[in-house]
Amino acid sequence: MTFRNPESFNAEGTLLASLSDAQKQAALNIAVEKSVPKGTTLMHQGDDGDTLLVIREGTCKICIYTASGKELILDYLGPGQIAGELSVFDGQPCSASVITVESCRVAVFQRAALLSFLEKNPDITLQIIKVLCARIRRTNQLLESDRSYAMGPKLARGLLQLVAFHGANIDSALNAESSLRFAISQSDLGNFVSLSRENVNRQLRDWQETGILTAAGGKITIKDLQALRDIADYID
């Protein structure tokens, strides 16, 4: 399989970044690349988990559905990040759904071929373990926000997490601007931080009036990162 821009796998922090060139090529040889439109469900919660996905371009959301059908968004994935690793290792059904929020390109690894590859290349197994640990830490942070913070700090913490992993123009300056690389609806943002769409709308409108951010057409730009950090740290 020929991949467009295979050098993108070399980016720091991506799944294959720590492997040698020969190992990278061996991994790419067992993968299939797919281009998928926005709104495509790549994995269904409860289905057999027989593939691992590496996001090449675009953004996906990881979500679960309650018994009543409510969607809860656990995380967002961008280029170099992976999905499906739990089922690949334990052989259990998918614990969450993976849905594209914009057009994406993904590398698809079948479970049997990947496990055989991992036996010969334990370095990448360590990378996957690190990914799992980082995801657990982010989930713990969201749980802390859900239980300990009021509406404003909860939404601020969620936005800061999103721009940390999916923001453009990240700068160390306290008041630097940062924009999300993908559009996000107020409903999805609410599902990510456990707030209603109405509360998200109200809070975003207040922050726009005070110049903390702009939000239009799903595109969010943080104009004052330090102000948002101050709100995120406030416990009523």
The CATH top-level class label of the largest domain: Mainly Beta
Largest sheet: 4 strands, antiparallel
- Average pLDDT works out at 84
N to C succession of SSEs: HEEEEEEHEEHHHEEHHEEH
Rounded Rg: 19 Å
Structural class: alpha+beta
Q: Can you list the strand order of the major beta sheet?
A: 1-8-3-6
Q: What would you say this structure looks like, in words?
A:
There is one protein chain. α4 runs antiparallel to α5, α5 crosses α8 and α6 packs across α7. This protein is elongated. It is an alpha+beta fold. It is built from 8 helices and 12 strands. The termini are far apart. A hairpin with a 2-residue loop joins β11 and β12. The strands form 3 sheets. Strands 1-8-3-6 form a 4-stranded antiparallel beta sheet. The protein has a 4-stranded antiparallel beta sheet with strand order 2-7-4-5. The protein folds into 2 domains: 131 residues, Jelly Rolls (Sandwich), CATH 2.60.120.10; 84 residues, Winged helix-like DNA-binding domain superfamily/Winged helix DNA-binding domain (Arc Repressor Mutant, subunit A, Orthogonal Bundle).
Q: Key features?
A:
236 residues; alpha+beta; Jelly Rolls; Arc Repressor Mutant, subunit A; 2 domains; four-stranded antiparallel beta sheet; 12 strands; cAMP-binding domain of CRP or a regulatory subunit of cAMP-dependent protein kinases
